[in-house]
């Protein structure tokens, strides 16, 4: 066994990135979720943080899924970046904290990610919020 | 002191929107190793949860566990969790000292009697030892632990020292160090081992208690199964190389460069249960095996004395018998290796991809 003194200081980068093969099972899981969504309407969600990916596995998975037509950013406790993959109904939900560090990465299989929907609690307060805005403009019945 | 506000109320007061709250819950689910579909259940529970009082005791330790927690990427979900628990006493972190600090601990105990959590990092000199090895405000660790735990709902032993004795208990154990569970037998104990534990695992356990008000499901060592339910080996991305018999022999050979299995360089992944392979360290950047180093087995009992860090589990050494005996007594399963002792399983092991024994593995190399 080599000792520390024999470890080279040179950084060697492989010419071809190592393929660990861990993204393929996720694609199969996504496929099952898509079938379930199409046949039963039940959405699915996969936490990629719980997957034992090797170096580069996640990037390869995201590259294979590609990017589709829709992107969105939510500003709440840091950014959440959402985009539809090139496969319709397969969304990537990328959560970051206020420091710009990732705190979770999910694949959501649904017609629209649940986090993009207006939340029922916010809807209940929406009228009151708008009334406050109108009051600031001189009242709901005030003329422009 | 612990407030009577619910977590939902506290977050709303901090200007957290509903989407932000759901995002927090999604990250919390991920942190607790729960399926993302649990997000709505977590949101409902956290909305009504009240801040628990937490008293953190530090005994014979290197402060690595607290460092692990507080030096995690900040601010984060972990910090939010710490913001929403009421950390009423922490010997290392608190500004108060002397009588004021000890009075804060006693006041927190009195006010939250029967419902507060006690977090302990570090082992302590056990009964029969010289108590002078570790004291706080002139009181022995043993006395403080017993006094503080008396009114606790549960005890969380953070780090391998508190959980199993750790480094202070390593041979020849000059201070007579013992683990928390060696002293406390009348309260629920959760062991969050690791040297140090993964910060998200520490806060994940606290979050679970905060969220559901219950103790997590645990293994025989009182470790939460959500984080310690699978071995490093079984979740390792290099596992396919182990199955193919492709091993790095030195730290700089072609196998090491190709990312092959580190088993023969002493990796203790097969006998180590922890979440490093999936949760990783430094904001999910990497973990020891991904950095090219074998797992040391830091979350297991007696890992300091369980053979050399760079001795492969299967390579006979002068103290290999001791190593396996320790693993056996501790109930550790050597990567499914030592588990497969039934002769019938041995005959069909390779063909059926059943766990194989050490001897079989050697024959395959």
Helix/strand structural class of chain A? alpha+beta
H/E element order of chain B: HHHEHHEHEEEEHEHEHEHHHHHHHHH
**Number of DSSP E strands of chain A:** 5
- Tally of DSSP helical segments of chain B: 18
Give structural attributes.
heterodimer, A: 144 residues, 5 strands, 30% helix, 21% strand, B: 365 residues, alpha/beta, 5-stranded parallel beta sheet
Description:
Chain A is built from three helices and five strands; from the N terminus they run αβαββββα. With 144 residues, chain A is α+β, with helices and mostly antiparallel strands. Chain A has a five-stranded antiparallel beta sheet with strand order 1-5-4-3-2. In chain A, a hairpin with a 5-residue loop joins strand 3 (79-84) and strand 4 (90-96). The model of chain A has no long low-confidence stretch (mean pLDDT 87). Helices cover 30% and strands 21% of the residues of chain A. In chain B, the strands form three sheets. Chain B has a five-stranded parallel beta sheet with strand order 2-1-3-7-9, with helices on both faces. In chain B, strands 4-8 form a two-stranded antiparallel ribbon. Chain B has 18 helices and nine strands. The termini of chain B are far apart. Chain B has helices at residues 7-13, 18-31, 39-48, 64-70, 77-84, 98-111, 141-149, 160-164, 180-183, 199-212, 225-228, 232-235, 239-244, 254-257, 276-279, 320-330, 343-352, 358-364, and strands at 53-58, 86-90, 116-121, 124-125, 135-136, 139-140, 152-158, 177-178, 189-192. In chain B, helix 2 (18-31) crosses helix 3. With 365 residues, chain B is of the alpha/beta class. At the A-B interface, strand 1 and strand 5 of A face helix 2 and helix 15 of B.
């Amino acid at each position: 066994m080599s000792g520390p003194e024999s470890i080279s200081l040179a950084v060697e980068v492989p010419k071809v990135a190592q393929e660990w093969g861990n993204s393929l099972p996720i694609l199969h899981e996504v496929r099952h979720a898509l079938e379930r969504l199409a046949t039963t309407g039940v959405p699915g969600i996969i936490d990629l943080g719980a997957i034992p990916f090797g170096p580069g596995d996640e990037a390869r998975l995201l590259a294979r899924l590609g990017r589709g037509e829709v992107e969105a950013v939510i500003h709440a406790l840091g950014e959440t970046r959402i985009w539809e993959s090139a496969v319709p109904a397969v969304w990537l939900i990328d959560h970051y904290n206020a420091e710009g560090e990732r705190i979770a990465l999910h694949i959501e299989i649904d017609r629209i990610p649940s986090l993009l929907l207006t939340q029922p609690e916010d809807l209940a307060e929406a009228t009151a919020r708008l009334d406050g805005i109108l009051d600031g403009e001189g009242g709901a019945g005030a003329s422009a | 002191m612990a407030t009577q506000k619910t977590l939902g109320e506290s977050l709303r007061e901090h200007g957290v929107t509903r989407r932000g709250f759901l995002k927090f819950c999604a990250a919390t689910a991920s942190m607790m190793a729960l399926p993302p579909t649990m997000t709505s259940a977590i949101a409902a529970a956290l909305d009504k949860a009240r801040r628990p009082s937490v008293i953190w005791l530090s005994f014979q330790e290197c402060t690595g566990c607290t460092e692990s927690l507080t030096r995690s990427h900040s601010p984060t979900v972990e910090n939010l969790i710490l913001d929403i628990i009421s950390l009423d006493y922490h010997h290392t972190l608190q500004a108060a000292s002397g009588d004021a600090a000890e009075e804060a601990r006693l006041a927190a105990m009195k006010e939250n009697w029967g419902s507060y959590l006690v977090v302990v990092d570090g082992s302590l000199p056990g009964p029969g030892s010289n108590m002078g090895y570790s004291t706080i405000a002139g009181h022995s660790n043993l006395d403080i632990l017993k006094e503080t735990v008396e009114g606790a709902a549960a005890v969380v032993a953070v780090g391998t020292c508190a959980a199993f004795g750790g480094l202070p208990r390593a041979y020849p154990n000059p201070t007579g160090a013992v683990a928390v569970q060696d002293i406390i037998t009348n309260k629920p104990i959760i062991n969050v081992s690791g040297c140090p534990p993964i910060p998200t695992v520490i806060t994940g356990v606290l979050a679970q208690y905060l969220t559901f008000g219950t103790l997590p499901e645990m293994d025989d060592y009182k470790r939460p199964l959500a984080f310690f339910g699978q071995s490093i080996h079984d979740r390792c991305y290099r596992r396919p190389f182990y199955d193919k018999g492709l091993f790095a022999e030195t730290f700089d050979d072609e196998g090491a460069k190709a990312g092959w299995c580190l088993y023969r360089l002493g990796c203790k992944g097969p006998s180590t249960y922890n979440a490093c392979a999936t949760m990783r360290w430094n904001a999910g950047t990497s973990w020891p095996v991904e950095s090219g180093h074998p797992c040391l087995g830091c979350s297991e009992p007696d890992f300091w004395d369980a053979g050399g860090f760079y001795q492969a589990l299967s390579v006979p050494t002068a103290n290999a018998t001791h190593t396996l005996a320790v693993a056996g007594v501790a109930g550790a399963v050597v990567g499914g290796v030592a588990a497969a002792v039934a002769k019938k399983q041995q005959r069909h092991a390779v063909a059926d991809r059943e766990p194989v024994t050490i001897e079989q593995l050697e024959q395959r190399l």
